[in-house]
Amino acid sequence: MGFSRMNRRDACLALAGLLAGGLAPGLAAADEFPGRQVTLIVPYEPGNTGDLWARMVAPKLSALWKQPVIVQNMPGASTMIGVAYVMRSKPDGHTLLIGSLSTTMAKLTNANVHFDPQVELAPVLKYLKFKMVLATNAVTYAKAKNLHELVTLSESVPGGIFYGGTGPGTAFNMSAGFVLRGLGVKYSEVNYNGTLPIILALIRNEVQVLENTPAALKGHIADGSIYPIAAFGEERFPELPNVQTVREAGYKGFYPVLWNGVFAPKGTPPRVLDRIAADIHAVSTAPDMKDRIESTFSGFIPQSNPQLFAHEIETETTQWRDFLASIHFTPH
């Protein structure tokens, strides 16, 4: 049975009254954030630092937003499967990407990427900057205890030394490349599927140097199988006070700091981006979270917001583009 003409009119008036009176919040707030479940897309396998961080903050955000916040792993295609999924999602803040430097550099470093994440994604905030060190093994450390000596060693070995990396164009390889090339270290890359195989290769002296966090290398540093020889930072790290910085070693150029950040689909309203950034920062820097995050991931939580994050990405991209041109890098 259908409504009569009068019934239709009354129904419309009744619905308008409900909306105006706040009695239908689900309808009135359909486009508000957060209005439903929020999904954090992690474009990596479980156990990655981005995955672990997301699972730390998700319950806190859920409590703050009074909506479920779930973590969904979507690895594959050098993270581009997860990136593309978020790009295609509704730009309302309810689907977010846990990204990294590799995300923003993808178009420059991967010939198989036919879209530009920097264009198709909206920066929300940089939530962590990693402390990174260049490290070597016991055999190499006996010959080179700092970067100056590593340069000399690399020049004395036919073909140079080997750097253990995660693949051409990846953030690990290219950030180390800034410094190693800038100082004149003669080296070749040997790439592995993941950081654990690289660490094992270093201990076995299959490679002579790698880049990683102090936290990832802590046990091996303690047992003397791995030796950090330079810190990627403007100041020495408190946990490694005797390890010189790359600046102290004489490196004057730009070096990228590896980071993780949150992105939303392009077109997400600025007020939503600002809300998400402020809430994630507040949750991350709460007394019960800040030390836990920074110690777990061997990094620090920077001040960040959508505008600052976007500016940093733009500046960083210019530096990367110049560096890639200088070494005639061909996207893999």
UniProtKB/TrEMBL annotation:
InterPro entries: BUG, Bug_dom1. The keyword Signal applies. It holds the Pfam family TctC. Keywords: Signal. Residues 1-30 form the signal peptide. Belongs to the UPF0065 (bug) family. PANTHER family: BLR1237 PROTEIN, TRICARBOXYLATE-BINDING PROTEIN. This is Tripartite tricarboxylate transporter substrate binding protein. It comes from Paraburkholderia podalyriae.
